[in-house]
Give the backbone structure.
Amino acid sequence: MGSDASPLSLTQPPDDEALDPLSASGRVLAAIYEMQDAEALYRARLRRRLAVSASELATVQYLARLGSRGLEARVIDVAAHLGVTTGAASIIVTRLAARGYITKRPDPRDGRGQHLDLTRVVRDAVASAAGTGSLIAMTRVAALSDRESRRMVALLSGITTGFVSGAPPEV
């Protein structure tokens, strides 16, 4: 966009330049779409390997992401992530635990709560389904400068906000 370009409207479709695959913004959009397609293929591979439902897969991926950052989750956290009740999340976690995909251990701060961990089998399946893609992504992210990191975070945050708040709630 030039300096005299109008700001991006969230209610109007983007101008033709943004959709032109040869423009800078068109190439960014194409890369985002390619990333979304790759994520869909990754999810399909992982779902086939584990033979799980969509909600079980979302739970496995959520726990894997938290685990990779040294964070823990409880059933209530899974419920919030999936947008379901704690009862529904508890059923999902129980099914995964029965298959040997999740272990539960007592929360030391709350005698009733339990921390959830993926088993080695599932962690290996997640890594195998990702192949070398995860390592390549981490290597590229680690190589970003501070300025590039800030720009990337701003871009991804904006895209995420669009997905989170983009559609009105269903009635």
The chain has two domains: 19-130, 131-161. Residues 131-161 form one domain. Helices lie at 16-19, 24-50, 54-68, 75-82, 86-98, 120-130, 133-142, 146-165. Strands lie at 102-107, 110-118.
